[in-house]
Amino acid sequence: MSEAAFPVGHKFADTAPALLDAARVAAYADASGDRNPIHLDEDAARAAGLPGTIVHGMLMMGHFERALRGWLPGTDIRSLQIRFLRPLAVGARMTISGRVAKLLPGEVPEMIVRLTVQDDAGQSVSIGDATVRAGNI
What we know:
- With 137 residues, this protein is of the alpha+beta class.
- It has a single domain (11-133), classed as Hotdog Thioesterase (Thiol Ester Dehydrase, Chain A, Roll).
- It has four helices and six strands; from the N terminus they run ββααααββββ.
- A hairpin with a 5-residue loop joins strand 4 (92-104) and strand 5 (110-118).
């Protein structure tokens, strides 16, 4: 595909909703070593002022990579930034949407893809930007 195949504003298909339940969050905590009780213990999360346990931000961020590679196989992710807008409750489903925000000229073109995570209720949970380089853009 040429660069023109993905003009600024191009929207990628939303990802299938991913369920981030307690078992998945606990497995991530074990793998990452991040056993902060706000992710694993309802009482500790409430004591910290949260309505209940919340998903690790880095676990959500890992789903950005999966979305990018699904939309653009063989993608070289040059950078990825995320801003958290509100916590995602453990047991919620998240959907990722993406659109081309900017094309970056160069010998090998790159583009910035704006990523948005929404919860079950359609509330934006986080937004991010990925700078990607792919041989097929």
